[in-house]
Amino acid sequence: MLTPLEQLLVALDAGPVCLVTVQEAKGSTPREEGAWMAIALAAPEVLIGSIGGGHLEWQAMREAHERLKACAAGAVDTTVAEPVVRKALGPSLGQCCGGVVSLRFECLGPRDAAGVRARLAPPLHKLALFGGGHVGRALVRVLEPLPFAIRWIDSRDEIFPAGLSSKVECEHSDPVQGAVADLAPGSMVLIMSFSHAEDQDIVAECLKRQRRHADLPFIGLIGSKTKWATFRHRLEARGFGEDDFARITCPIGVPGIVGKDPEVIAVAVAAQLLMRVGPLT
Question: What is the pLDDT of residues 262-272, one digit of tens each?
Answer without folding.
Answer: 999 999 999 99
